[in-house]
Amino acid sequence: MRAQPFPPEMEIQEEDYFDYYYDEPGSEPGSIIIDPEALPTHINLIEYNPIKAYKKSDIQPKDCQSCLNNDLVSWADIQGLGSEKILREIAEVFRLHPLILEDVVNVPQRPKLEDCQNQLLIILHCIKPNSNEMGFTSEQISLVLGKNYLLTFQEDAIDDFSKLRDRIKNNQGKVRNLGADYLAYLILDTLIDNYFPVLEDYGERIELLEDLIVADPTQKTLKEIYNIRRELLALRRSIWPLRNLFNQLTREENELISKEVYIYFRDCYYHTIQILDILETYRELASSLMDVLMSSMSNKMNEVVTLLTIISSIFIPLTFIAGIYGMNFEFMPELEWHWGYFLCLLLMLSIALLMLFFFWQRGWFKFYFSKKTKW
Amino acid sequence: MRAQPFPPEMEIQEEDYFDYYYDEPGSEPGSIIIDPEALPTHINLIEYNPIKAYKKSDIQPKDCQSCLNNDLVSWADIQGLGSEKILREIAEVFRLHPLILEDVVNVPQRPKLEDCQNQLLIILHCIKPNSNEMGFTSEQISLVLGKNYLLTFQEDAIDDFSKLRDRIKNNQGKVRNLGADYLAYLILDTLIDNYFPVLEDYGERIELLEDLIVADPTQKTLKEIYNIRRELLALRRSIWPLRNLFNQLTREENELISKEVYIYFRDCYYHTIQILDILETYRELASSLMDVLMSSMSNKMNEVVTLLTIISSIFIPLTFIAGIYGMNFEFMPELEWHWGYFLCLLLMLSIALLMLFFFWQRGWFKFYFSKKTKW
Amino acid sequence: MRAQPFPPEMEIQEEDYFDYYYDEPGSEPGSIIIDPEALPTHINLIEYNPIKAYKKSDIQPKDCQSCLNNDLVSWADIQGLGSEKILREIAEVFRLHPLILEDVVNVPQRPKLEDCQNQLLIILHCIKPNSNEMGFTSEQISLVLGKNYLLTFQEDAIDDFSKLRDRIKNNQGKVRNLGADYLAYLILDTLIDNYFPVLEDYGERIELLEDLIVADPTQKTLKEIYNIRRELLALRRSIWPLRNLFNQLTREENELISKEVYIYFRDCYYHTIQILDILETYRELASSLMDVLMSSMSNKMNEVVTLLTIISSIFIPLTFIAGIYGMNFEFMPELEWHWGYFLCLLLMLSIALLMLFFFWQRGWFKFYFSKKTKW
Amino acid sequence: MRAQPFPPEMEIQEEDYFDYYYDEPGSEPGSIIIDPEALPTHINLIEYNPIKAYKKSDIQPKDCQSCLNNDLVSWADIQGLGSEKILREIAEVFRLHPLILEDVVNVPQRPKLEDCQNQLLIILHCIKPNSNEMGFTSEQISLVLGKNYLLTFQEDAIDDFSKLRDRIKNNQGKVRNLGADYLAYLILDTLIDNYFPVLEDYGERIELLEDLIVADPTQKTLKEIYNIRRELLALRRSIWPLRNLFNQLTREENELISKEVYIYFRDCYYHTIQILDILETYRELASSLMDVLMSSMSNKMNEVVTLLTIISSIFIPLTFIAGIYGMNFEFMPELEWHWGYFLCLLLMLSIALLMLFFFWQRGWFKFYFSKKTKW
Amino acid sequence: MRAQPFPPEMEIQEEDYFDYYYDEPGSEPGSIIIDPEALPTHINLIEYNPIKAYKKSDIQPKDCQSCLNNDLVSWADIQGLGSEKILREIAEVFRLHPLILEDVVNVPQRPKLEDCQNQLLIILHCIKPNSNEMGFTSEQISLVLGKNYLLTFQEDAIDDFSKLRDRIKNNQGKVRNLGADYLAYLILDTLIDNYFPVLEDYGERIELLEDLIVADPTQKTLKEIYNIRRELLALRRSIWPLRNLFNQLTREENELISKEVYIYFRDCYYHTIQILDILETYRELASSLMDVLMSSMSNKMNEVVTLLTIISSIFIPLTFIAGIYGMNFEFMPELEWHWGYFLCLLLMLSIALLMLFFFWQRGWFKFYFSKKTKW
User: What stretch or stretches form a coiled coil here (chains A, B, C, D, E) (predicted)?
Assistant: First the structure.
């Protein structure tokens, strides 16, 4: 099982979750800024129709020129955003609007759908659970859907789409019989489905917290609740715009998407809604847990203070009595009584018993004698 | 009465409430995954018109072929989702879209309404109170409404619809005189009405909590409030989509639903609204109870700390005075006074009375002398 | 004045506020369930036109047959929902849809507006303050508005409409000159206006709480705040649907309502909005009061703990010094000094004064020397 | 500067803020109830066109008859709502709908816009800061805009419009060149602008609270926060409906308002939005301040309890040691050591230093040695 | 790095954030009030077409007359709002509506979009981080877009647009090839992009707080959280209206904006949405931090009180025993036993160990022996 309450190393790069790209104020619109750490750009092209399908690896942008004319469905997968020259050549070949190129290259952007010049730009995030620690990683994937072709721009050369490539190669399912719009759907569907395992991790972490919160209502639990709320907020920022995006995709008549494929996009829409549903539920649970933590701390304090009060209330008056008979006055008749000492002890015992009865009656002992609830 | 504050065994499988099905990322759309624990699939067919009605049990998918052609209303009730072959044959006979079959088989899905290819898919949940403990069970029921037929897919072979089958058999009410749309309504109505007894249980649990919260503001009460909030959240996830679903059903003109039946679907819509109303009320009450619990704990602490302060404030100064006259200085004139001891006691008494007066004036005794409120 | 902070008997039937009717799951739609405690059904008929008006008491359903044909405006007031036979006959005479009859008889329903078969069904609640205690009672009133007639179904034989009957009888105001739609308005207006005195009571209870909350931040105050929040929630459930209902009534063109009367329904709409406004204000005030209560308890605790700390911090060190000179070591030079005792007392006094100065400087005495604020 | 944290006399009539008028249930619609304390009614008439302008004071209703026919713009300013006869005559002269008269006379109503019978009724509130204390006063002003005339009904004979009258008299600005609609705008604009100084006072009170809340987190501060929240709630109830009102005025085509004047009403709309913006900001700040107060109290308690713990933890063990050597056992070897007393003192000193080191290490002294933050 | 937890001088003029302009109630609409501290007005004119571009500095209003007629794109940049005469002349030359001039001069206004008389008025704020301290400064910039010209009104002579002027001069990018609408976009884009660095500062301040909040949960942290919430509220007031503004700009067909430029305004819209997204995220984080602070304080108190209880519970009973044997009764048999003293010490030790075991078992030591979490 992946989720652990408090993993040994808490070396998560938390600042990543709220990363975003923004232009230098006053910069030229459409300017692209290459991240010096970005991977060099590679282009893989897959072309297919119901009869044949082939793949070309590491081609040059000008080799894609043919995609626009032939009647095959073309999928140009651009991996790595580090080579400005290649990216600009691709933009030229496919006649991308400068703003589209800007959104594709300057990552991360907010997920969005932009319909411009017979092309549909879809930007969304590929979310994956961290393999060896808690949290998730996020990476931007941009799709440009044209008449007969699909461009995908990926930050990393991840291998999420290998199953899909196999399905094209082996002619499994419907993919070879339908157009670039169905291919776009298959990619979007994969990306949406990626959210579920991440969510499941949070479900498990919340369940673990439910058990821990009473046994150990400390700073660590508090930190974990805060982290979960923080990360769910980041997840929500990434998924929330998709709701609108798919809603637009399914409602607006768009000539790039065929009637047959709409029902598939609607399926994506329902999945997005479901993810948001689960996310909101987790957020509400995490917020309830914060209340529970506060109550739990308050309860713990009650327990501690009650003990202090019981002990103090019994022994402070008794100590006072002992103090009286420790005074050195010359004339203190009781001191001379033969049974004085024992009468004094008896008095003390009575007071102690009276006090205990009072506390028992008010139910102040239940903290100590009730079995520890395993809630 | 079912609701109990804290039932002896707290062995509720809580994780069930937030269960959901999701595709393996990258899997083929329309693929169906048979749960190894699912029951084997049985098909029961009821066919009727105003004049006659008969029932066929445990038939084969191809026996349903006739439903599509004859002018009887057909209700094919498919129980158990464990036999992939039978399910695929049904899909073939009734020409179900692959995505519909996927939603029907891969349970649980979010409730939804899908209008596709002259068929209407309605997915919702059958909610039932747990018979011997708190909480509820949830099971998916899918309806596929066609021109002249209705398919129902159930996870379990529950017997919620036996009364309905009797009404068809005995020609009670209008059911035999109307089409498959009215039959669909009758099933939906039964499923919606199932929510009410579950809600009633929560109403009772909240009422019990209102009594317990002051008498016993402890971890157990806290746990119970959290559980109620958690389960109401799960219930809300199940009922919330229905609001939209029925709203769509009553507003959109759909050729599968006759004018006469619209008013019945509107009735379902109003019932859904009412359930949501009650649910929100309970959620707000549960949230108020959390505030009450916090206040109650705080009040309890005040009570305990006030006692500590009263006892300490009276006896600590007195003990100090006793301490003074317990010192062993050689020259302490008071010790030699004949009435010194009694003057000292008098002084102590005065201080104690002064303190008590001060506390009484500030009203600090009201915790102890006011009759325990039974709120 | 009606509102009292804590009335002597707290015997309010709280569970009533959240009562609602629901069908037995699987029951026949349109089935009516007679509550065994319901009053027997009586029908009073008032018929009028600008010239004449007469009233028939305790008539039979079939006597209403004429209402449908003559050109008088007819108001059939059905009181008591206990006689199934009579209710069914009425439904037959006026051709009520089975679902309408169900909604009318199976009380309480959520307020709603249903337009069906040339009849307009309006369901709402008659709210009245409890005469001898806090809270309110709620009762369903259903109106069926037809072409020339108005049916009202009441649970109880209350006498809210006697003034209205007098106005019809004495031809006061416009009522005799307008149709059944205006009569419906007059009844709705009376029912809406009934909410105001109930709201006023809550306003007074909240004002009383504002005074009590600091003087007496105890369980009773907490209980009262919770009760107010609870009852306002119940009130809101009853009034909220009316907003939509009247909005629909004023916007949709309906042939049963004449142009002249629309402005009156709009007036009802504005009153409903105003009630909701006040209700939300009270809800926010009650929620603020909960915060104030928490702060007030926290402040009280500060006050108590500060005293404890002052007393302990002064006397515990002094007692320690006294303890030192109470030790029985054989060689303790100070004990033999002649002024040792007085030097020791002087030391103690200095420490005490130093401590007091420290506390005074930090302002810890302000709790005790500031005049009790009467906020 | 007007705003003071806690003015000497807290004699604000708080109940005024949530005042509202409601009909006696069952009363005749359109009935008007004269408040016995209302001022007697006076009518002042101003008539003007671009060329001339004159004013008639204290005229009779029938003198207004001419307004309807001549081609001057007429502004009838009705001050005081105490004379039923005069008010009814005005209604007759200007043919006001009974419901309009009711809304105008039975104050205070919720702000609203009603378009009926070629007349536009606008009800809103004139808000003014209290001159000698905190809070504000509210008074209803009703405008009835007709073809060529404007009626204003004021509760009091306030002099808010004297500048406006001067502008008409002296032909300043555009007022004499435009119609009654522009006059209505000028009055509305004045009323809206009246909200700003009141808001500014709340801004100052909140700023004062920000300084006070830490220095003095007591009941008075709590009361002040609660009062501000309460009064902002009242303000919001008065301004919120205006947003909708002006939105309607600017969007709907109304023949009473000329094209030229629409831009001015849009300006009012923007001012209303701005007031709501500021109001919401203040409400959020007041709500944040409540959190700050709670934290501040909690911090104060921490400070107090930490001192108690430090003092107790050091001196209670020491007192115990002193107690041991104060016992009267016959055989206690240490007592007879020559340096026993000094060894004992040394032991005590070591323990005290150890404790102090422990507390210093945990940072528990920072409350006392950090300079008081002036936040 | 700019963000510091608590900068040395806290001399931020906080009241600036919630500044707003409002008219004196009753003042003439369209009147302009010159702020005595406003800078004198200077006009710089840039005119260009694809072929040529020139700049005139410090010209007179009448020199702009030609802009309206020639076919160059003209950008008149008016800096400083201190010279009423010049501003009125500009208004005359460009035929500005009085309300537009009022909005432009009487700063600060709420951001808005006003379409009037063939001109488009856009008001928004130029936000910049404070260079040497925390927080930001805000200044109003107004754009008036006409057929062939653009007016910009700036409070200050800031140099935000120098890069833009260079691009025009050097014919970089598309600016010289497109109209005044594209120029307006470039200015808006720069202003929107200015928000990002300010937001980034808040992100850093929140991150710093996340580290500080547990190590130092004091008044200063509380003050910093409150300040962040306060300033984010101010930022939100400034950015929120832009969302609507750009939405309107992109949806409404406006003849002043060419088809080609719409996609650019849509880009501004997406940036605004993104800023709001980040802002809301920060607001939620700041609000969560307040919860964390409360929990942290509560935890600290638990820690302190637990120590007090442990020490008191062990030593108070022991001191009592010592007190008993310090009494001076004549007959106390134990005192005379030879091993009495040692037996007594043994008894005390046993009690102490028992208590320690009890506390260890309840886990009360974990506060002190667990390594300080660096969360």
Answer: none
Question: Which of chain E's residues have a Cβ under 8 Å away from the Cβ of D272?
Answer: none
Higher per-residue pLDDT: C27 or E304: E304
- Compute φ and ψ for A157, nearest 5 degrees: -90, 60
One-character DSSP codes across E81-108: S--HHHHHHHHHHTT--HHHHHHHHSPP
**Whole-number mean pLDDT of chain E?**
87
Highest mean pLDDT among A278-292, A331-345, C240-254, D329-343: A278-292
Tens digit of each residue's pLDDT (9 = 90 or more) over D274-286: 999 999 999 999 9
B302 with C297: Cβ contact below 8 A: yes
Is B263's Cβ below 8 Å from some Cβ in A? no
CB contact under 8 A, E320 and A322: yes
Contact C332 D341 (CB under 8 A): yes
What confidence category does residue C309 fall into, taking pLDDT thresholds of 50, 70 and 90?
A: very high
> C296-361, what's its fold?
Methane Monooxygenase Hydroxylase; Chain G, domain 1 (1.20.58)
User: What's the CATH code, domain A42-294?
Assistant: 3.30.460.20
DSSP reduced 3-state for A66: helix
Chain E residue numbers touching A20 (CB-CB < 8 A): 274, 278
**A-E contacts at Cβ under 8 angstroms:** 171
**CA angle, residues E25, E30, E36, in degrees to nearest 5:** 80
Residues of B in contact with A281 (CB under 8 A): 18, 233-234, 237
CB burial of residue A83 (10 Å; 0-12, 13-18, 19+)? middle
Give the largest CA-CA distance in chain C: 122
Cβ-based contacts of E167 with chain A (< 8 Å): 28
What ranges do the domains of chain D cover?
A: 42-294, 296-361
The 10s digit of each residue's pLDDT in C75-114 is 999 999 999 999 999 999 999 998 999 999 988 899 999 9
Strands, E assignment, chain E: 42-48, 53-56, 73-79, 112-116, 119-129, 136-145, 149-154
Q: Which of B16, B96, B308 is the best mutation test for A, with the most CBs of A within 10 A? A: B308
**B156-206 confidence digits (pLDDT tens):** 866 678 889 999 999 888 889 999 999 999 999 999 999 999 999 999 999
pLDDT of residue C369: 59
Q: Which of E240, E242, E116, E255 has its CA nearest to residue D267?
A: E116
Q: Does B353 touch chain A (CB under 8 A)?
A: no
Q: Residue E243 contacts by C-beta under 8 Å, 6 or more apart in sequence?
A: E269, E272, E273, E276
* Chain A residue closest in CA terms to E375: A223
For chain C, list the contacting chains (3+ Cβ pairs, <8 Å). B, D
Residues 6+ apart with CB under 8 A from E89: E60, E61, E62
Choose from E114, E308, E332, E372 for mutation: most chain D CBs within 10 A. Answer: E308
The alpha-carbon gap from A328 to the nearest alpha carbon of chain E, in Å, equals 8
For residue A27, what pLDDT is reported? Answer: 82
What's the DSSP call for residue B218?
S
Beta bridge partners of D140: D125
Q: With beta carbons under 8 A apart, name residues in chain B contacting A215.
A: none
The ipTM is 0.86
Please state the rounded mean pLDDT for residues E210-234.
86
What's the N-to-C CA distance of chain E in angstroms? Answer: 22
Q: Do A25 and E197 touch (CB under 8 A)?
A: yes
Q: Which of E289, E330, E364 is nearest residue A336 as measured by Cβ atoms? A: E330
CA distance B350 to chain C (A): 17
Q: In what order do the strands lie in the sheet with D112-116?
A: D53-56, D42-48, D73-79, D149-154, D136-145, D119-129, D112-116
Chain B 98-137, CB below 8 Å of chain C: which residues? none
Model confidence at D367, in pLDDT bands (50, 70, 90)? low
